[in-house]
């Protein structure tokens, strides 16, 4: 059994950013990471652009100007303007090439096709120059940049329609257990509803991973090995829920060994989630998660999600960690490190009830995890504690 830090270090060492790339539409690129620099195909703005609603002036010396024309956004003509003349102009409209400045409408008085400035102006005021944001050929976004909604908007303003990104891994989720029944079906004595696959699919989708396939296998060795062989062949990351312990009907570990999966580690000195398995098969990543739902989700956030994000090209792939002030007392039993479901209210951390590995109620109310190292046994109100913010 290894420590939490050893487990994190081993995953870090074994996980490398994918070299596989794909060209996709900018409109579908949210959450992907750029595999190549993107260069601007145009100057932005591509013309002198008015930053305000107001008046373009043919000179800056006068106080009174004759109003001779109007330019609005989308106009394609370049109207003539002379000294002593003004053109009504609107935000985003092209500034006439002969105009010397733009004065905002709040600073003028209008009467009988004339405007009078209420205060002096200066050359080039309220004009966005050609290429003010970026010049044609300059780097718009650099390789390894994560694409955000703002990034999509930025690329769209430049007319970029496709980009090359790191390919996200395909993911398989396998649930094991004869006792599991799909929600909506009647329960017989000894059965429970299967929740882990839906929970993990949702967690993956929230983090931008939609290429997820789900499978269920009965507690049968031959079926377990056959399904594992198929999913390892067809997917990049395999998450197995349950069946990794040492019971008579836990066949996952034996099947993984027979397939030739290299065990990097099995069992972590933590609560919940002690029976966590991490292995590699060539370039495939295999996690066997505990079957208890809270254990499974804790291990997913601490170990699995960071590995998947790193595979996908992310540079910041661990959940955000910080400090908070304990708003409740807690006594940790045993010598294992603990991940406790908690609620973070502006740095005030309340450790929730129902911390058992089988209970999801507290997880459903939590927005952070409290991390207690092996050597910490007590949390007292007012203590500074380490937290891991959930997505």
Automatic annotation (TrEMBL):
One of its GO terms (molecular function) is metal ion binding. GO terms for cellular component: cytosol. Catalyzes the insertion of molybdate into adenylated molybdopterin with the concomitant release of AMP. It comes from the Bacteria. InterPro entries: MoaB/Mog-like_dom_sf (IPR036425), MoaB/Mog_dom (IPR001453), MoeA-like (IPR038987), MoeA_C_domain_IV (IPR005111), MoeA_C_domain_IV_sf (IPR036688), MoeA_linker/N (IPR005110), MoeA_linker/N_sf (IPR036135). Pathway: Cofactor biosynthesis; molybdopterin biosynthesis. SUPFAM superfamilies: MoeA C-terminal domain-like, MoeA N-terminal region -like, Molybdenum cofactor biosynthesis proteins. Its EC number is 2.10.1.1. Residues 172-310 form the MoaB/Mog domain. This is Molybdopterin molybdenumtransferase. NCBIfam families: Glp_gephyrin (NF045515), molyb_syn (TIGR00177). CDD domains: MoeA. One of its GO terms (biological process) is Mo-molybdopterin cofactor biosynthetic process. It comes from Aquimarina spongiae. Its cofactor is Mg(2+). Belongs to the MoeA family.
């Amino acid at each position: 059994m290894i420590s939490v830090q050893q487990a994190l270090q081993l995953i870090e060492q074994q996980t490398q950013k994918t070299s596989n790339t794909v060209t996709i539409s900018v409109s579908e690129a949210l959450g992907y990471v750029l595999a190549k620099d993107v260069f601007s195909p145009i100057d932005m703005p591509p013309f002198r652009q008015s930053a305000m609603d107001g008046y373009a002036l043919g000179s800056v010396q006068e106080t009174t100007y004759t109003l001779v024309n109007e330019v609005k956004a989308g106009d394609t003509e370049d109207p003539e303007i002379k000294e002593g003349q003004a053109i009504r102009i609107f935000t985003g409209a092209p500034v006439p090439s002969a105009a010397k400045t733009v004065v905002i409408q709040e600073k003028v008085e209008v009467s009988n096709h004339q405007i009078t400035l209420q205060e002096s102006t200066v050359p080039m005021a309220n004009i966005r120059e050609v290429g003010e944001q970026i010049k044609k050929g300059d780097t718009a976004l650099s390789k390894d940049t994560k694409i955000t909604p703002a990034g999509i908007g930025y690329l769209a303003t430049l007319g970029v329609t496709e980009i090359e990104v790191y390919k996200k891994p395909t993911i398989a989720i396998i649930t094991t257990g004869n006792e599991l029944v799909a929600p909506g079906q009647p329960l017989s004595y000894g059965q429970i509803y299967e929740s882990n696959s839906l929970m993990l699919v949702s967690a993956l989708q929230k983090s931008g991973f939609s290429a997820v396939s789900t499978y269920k296998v009965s507690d049968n060795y031959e079926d377990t090995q056959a399904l594992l062989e198929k999913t390892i062949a067809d997917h990049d990351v395999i998450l197995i829920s349950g069946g990794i312990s040492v019971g008579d009907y836990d066949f996952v570990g034996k099947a993984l060994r027979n397939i030739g999966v290299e065990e990097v580690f099995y069992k972590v000195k933590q609560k919940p989630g002690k029976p966590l398995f991490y292995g590699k098969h060539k370039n495939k990543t295999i996690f066997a998660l505990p079957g208890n739902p809270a254990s499974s989700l804790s291990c997913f956030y601490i170990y699995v999600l960071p590995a998947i994000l790193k595979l996908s090209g992310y540079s910041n792939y661990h959940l955000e960690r910080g400090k908070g002030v304990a708003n409740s007392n807690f006594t940790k039993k045993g010598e294992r490190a603990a991940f406790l479901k908690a609620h973070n209210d502006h740095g005030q951390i309340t450790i929730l009830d129902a911390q058992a590995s089988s209970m999801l109620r507290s997880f459903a109310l939590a927005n952070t995890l409290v991390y207690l190292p092996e050597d910490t046994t007590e949390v007292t109100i007012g203590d500074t504690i380490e937290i891991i913010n959930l997505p």
